[in-house]
## 1
Amino acid sequence: MERYREDIFERFTYRDNYNEEQISRVIIQIASALHWIHFKGYVHMDIQASNILFESRQSWQIKLTDFASAQKISHEIKQPLKPNLYWSSPEILRTDEKKTSITVQTDIWSLGVITFCLLSGFHPFASADDSDDEIKQSIIYQKCNPNLIQVQATEESLKFVTWALKKDPMRRMRTDEALTHRWLSMDRVMIRRRETVNYSSSRLRRTAILTANHIKDNPPSNDRFAGPLF
């Protein structure tokens, strides 16, 4: 059984600064892993920063872990018993007549939240003073605020994250669209632009603490291995 120690927030808060190229390098790997999982007929259901681990402190290769909540794709994907509020999609949290079915798009929402956190340093729908109910209402009803994202961010990154955080899962980005998005392009010009956009890790440290405190109250499965799901 493989063991990994450093999660995505730990990596990006280890130093004082990081750049957009490093963010995109991680996001494309997550999108690729989700594309494969969805192709195999499963939805992960628990994409969050603490479940994305690096192979080593020297490597930028990531692994998705904690498949305890994963489900076979069907017409009736079950509601998670204890969803992690910070990473849950609107369709998981809604209980009213406008509730829609849970699909693979719930994983894309979580990917969007991670991307937003890395680009802005803030959670798109939560702050330290918010109650769980306030966070839930924000996720369901409020649009993410692109103005929270640092001004130096590329236009492509803003388009990517706002598409991934569409409230309506039918309008939300799919994994194939994420993988072919201009922001994640390996075009030399785009790579260079991403490399020149730097972010301070100070705000992200506070968000990492905020989301980690929720994990302490709702511990994940002990089975956090990075081995194959299928």
## 2
Amino acid sequence: MTAPPPGSLGQPKAGAAALARRITAFAGVPFLSLLAPFIFLPVLARLAGADVWVAIALGQSVGGIAALVSGLGYSTLAPPIVAVASIEERRRLLATSLHVRVPVWGVAAVIAVIVAASLAPEANRAEAAAMAGAMSLAGLAPTWFWIGVGRALPILWSEVLPRTAATLVAT
């Protein structure tokens, strides 16, 4: 009796385990970046007061909207395109995305900074503006590219660490 070929129904546990690891990596790594504000904001509210907390939360919200606008849908539309593209096409897609998104981000970030500063409590406008600018940078993150090429670890250094650092600096 011979062993079933790799990837056949004779090896369901190995395939299921690999799939579970990939799902955990792709869901878990971005989830870490979402946890940072929930860890730091309650500490900030306790140490600095409600006005600072409001300014930081406002900056995160407005910056998140700017990131969504400046992302131009790449996070939704591009991963399957990258997945089937050649290496040269992938490079071109990434470069083109930056050429298109950077100018949009520049406008969206400036608007976000102005909106956050104008809505924040007067004593904490700088914090709100800084957080809005920092959070707007997520619109330039290459997360969609790493999902398309099937690599979760680079998302850690391109999204999670910068977002956590921005939250720490702003707090």
